[in-house]
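Retro notes (design track)

What went well: tokenization of the new backbones is finally stable.
What didn't: we kept losing track of which sequence belonged to which structure.
Fix going forward: every design gets posted as structure first, then sequence, in one message. First example under the new rule, 418 residues:
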């Protein structure tokens, strides 16, 4: 029997669909005791129809999303009607923007409507049209001249200012993704920038408060989210990832892509340091067993890994926040499973680095307890953190008729305010 799935309360299960370049993963989970996430179902399908995180073939993408949802439904026994969906592609840009509004009568208590107006002003200042805005995330408020206000509700003043982080995805990328998920039979609850979702699964609150950078190195993209005082200050998506490493191995060792992928995953290291020059590795191929030199393999991998990490470093320098990250870097995404990558990252980025694996899970955790599933797990946690499972106004933000996804004004308000 199929159990009805209707996200109408905090304890109701939430579903997430990670639409990645190599895999689509649907996860459904509910909040268990002590903040643990009880995983009720997982459905993973190899991804087709996406390039560098962007939909390039709608039919193929729909088919893969539908297959992943179907697997998850069969395993969990839930019928999935709505889900949080990940998005990361090179058309994404972000900036910090300020919104300022006047408060009608000096002395009137600041309410939710005032905050929404201030957030709207910040979104307008950032420039994009509503349909391209993914997130408008409040980072702090100023009431008149009082800075550092976390919650202005109930305060009095004549001027309300909000500092926000605005994330925008242009070129129809949001609309194409929404179309694919809807055609696969599910309504997107929230579109969530991939590194923000991954952060939910692998960062601690203490790291987010202290200052930390989340780096999700997937197959087609490397995504960054930098947190300070608990909120995102900088996000970026770079069109490079693990599939570029595999491509380099395929070209360098003159091997088919599948063989190169197996070589990388089974025998690869992020650095050739300590690898013996004459150590052979053997792989079974269609044409019989093939032998390669491990040091040569690791040299090729090292060059691309360093290049990716230098791009991350460049992004970090450009952000201007490099010196304020005491909690260092948390690496996640499938490529974070590459042996030795944390050491190479610590050397290049000159910061402490740890690998982020989704934790505090129970239930069907075998597949997803690995960095490649940080986004999928984070998409489920996303709704539990902000407590929007029961928010009937979510409908407003996803207006099917116009195809517009509105910024997460209400959602983030709930996260930010008590
Ligand atoms: N043990 C491993 N060693 C090296 N690379 C690995 C390992 N396991 C997985 N990978 C790589 O991780 C990548 C897949 O990561 P992930 O599943 O996070 O990507 P994705 O979410 O599908 O893509 P994206 O987020 O870029 O759209 C592939 O390039 C794969 O080769
Ligand atoms: Mg990914």
């Amino acid at each position: 029997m199929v159990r009805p799935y209707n996200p109408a309360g905090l304890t109701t299960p939430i579903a997430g669909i990670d639409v990645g370049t190599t895999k689509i993963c649907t996860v459904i989970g509910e909040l268990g005791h002590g903040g643990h996430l009880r995983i009720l179902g997982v459905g993973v399908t190899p991804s087709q129809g996406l390039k560098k995180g962007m939909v390039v073939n709608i039919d193929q993408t729909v088919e893969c999303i539908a297959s992943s949802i179907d697997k998850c439904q069969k395993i969990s026994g839930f019928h999935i009607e709505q889900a949080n969906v990940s998005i990361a592609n090179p058309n994404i840009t972000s900036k910090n923007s300020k919104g300022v509004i006047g408060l009608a009568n000096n002395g009137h208590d600041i309410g939710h409507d005032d905050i929404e107006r201030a957030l709207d002003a910040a979104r307008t200042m950032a420039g994009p049209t509503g349909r391209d805005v993914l997130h408008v995330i409040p980072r702090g408020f100023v009431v008149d001249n009082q800075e550092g206000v976390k919650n202005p509700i109930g305060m009095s003043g004549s001027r309300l200012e909000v500092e926000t982080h605005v994330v925008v995805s242009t070129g129809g990328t949001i609309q194409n993704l929404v179309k694919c998920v809807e055609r696969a039979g599910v309504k997107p609850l929230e579109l969530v920038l991939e590194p923000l979702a991954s952060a939910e699964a692998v960062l601690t609150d203490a790291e987010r408060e202290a200052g930390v950078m989340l780096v999700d190195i997937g197959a087609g993209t490397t995504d960054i989210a930098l947190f300070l005082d608990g909120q995102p200050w900088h996000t970026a998506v770079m069109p490079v990832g693990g599939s570029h490493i595999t491509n380099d191995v395929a070209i360098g060792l003159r091997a088919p892509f599948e063989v190169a992928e197996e070589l990388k995953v089974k025998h690869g290291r992020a650095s050739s340091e300590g690898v013996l020059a004459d150590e052979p590795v053997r792989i079974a191929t269609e044409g019989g067993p093939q032998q390669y030199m491990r040091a040569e393999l690791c040299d090729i991998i090292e060059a691309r890994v360093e290049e990716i990490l230098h791009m991350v470093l460049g992004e970090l320098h450009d952000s201007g926040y490099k010196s304020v990250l005491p909690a260092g870097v948390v690496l996640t995404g499938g490529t974070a499973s590459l042996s030795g990558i944390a050491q190479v990252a610590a050397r290049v980025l000159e910061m402490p680095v740890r690998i982020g694996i989704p934790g505090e899970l129970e239930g069907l955790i075998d597949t997803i307890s690995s960095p490649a599933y940080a986004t999928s797990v984070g998409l489920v946690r996303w709704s539990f953190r902000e407590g929007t499972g029961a928010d009937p106004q979510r409908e407003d933000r996803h207006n099917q008729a116009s195809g517009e996804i509105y910024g997460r004004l209400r959602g983030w308000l709930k996260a930010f305010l008590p």
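Added context from the reviewer: DSSP finds twelve helices and 21 strands in the chain.
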